[in-house]
């Protein structure tokens, strides 16, 4: 992969944007490789979580327009939706993480602008340093956000906040992001906090965790008539699974469960 590091340690995929000299400004290769990294993580049933981060002082400063401007034809190709999805390459870089059946935590430091913010919002959780700064930077370039923000931000904040930040492109702080629901938690060491959270998740059945993510991704805007069948189907599948049996047996015996790799 080009400027995207992918390393698995203790059943956690550490995916890092690695172009620190440019504050991890996105190239087209990086955008493609982020979607590939999400696909790779989704296929690895031994994984229990993913941490997204940026090398150097910043998470991601957004699209590197100096680089992108040299490849205008590729930019236009990247805007064409894939045959198997409504998402194009830009949108997949952010939204593909919602399909990975494990918790995905974005650890945000420094700048989190434009496409970088949209990638972070595509994660399930965002852990930030207090001094990180944020912006829907596309307004500066006379554009709108087009890397899946419309789908992700609508689950997190109110429409007036989304409109304001998109129309103005203003920078905002981690404290403001937390208040608006765009950041999950703020920590002096967000990477350590993310790892601590993941350790707590690893105590639970990987199939139950995957099903919990699927449950909310597929029902969040649905009423009971559409949501209840999803609950029923997921629960029936879990009840027939090996990890559910392991969890029940360990719970009754008051022992630590020893789960097998994700089955679903």
UniProtKB/TrEMBL annotation:
Keyword tags: Fatty acid metabolism, Lipid metabolism
SUPFAM superfamilies linked: ClpP/crotonase (SSF52096)
Single GO term (MF): enoyl-CoA hydratase activity
GO process annotations (BP): fatty acid metabolic process
PANTHER family: DELTA(3,5)-DELTA(2,4)-DIENOYL-COA ISOMERASE, MITOCHONDRIAL, ENOYL-COA HYDRATASE
Family indicated by similarity: Belongs to the enoyl-CoA hydratase/isomerase family.
Function recorded in the entry: Could possibly oxidize fatty acids using specific components.
Name of the protein: Enoyl-CoA hydratase
UniProt organism field: Gordonia neofelifaecis NRRL B-59395
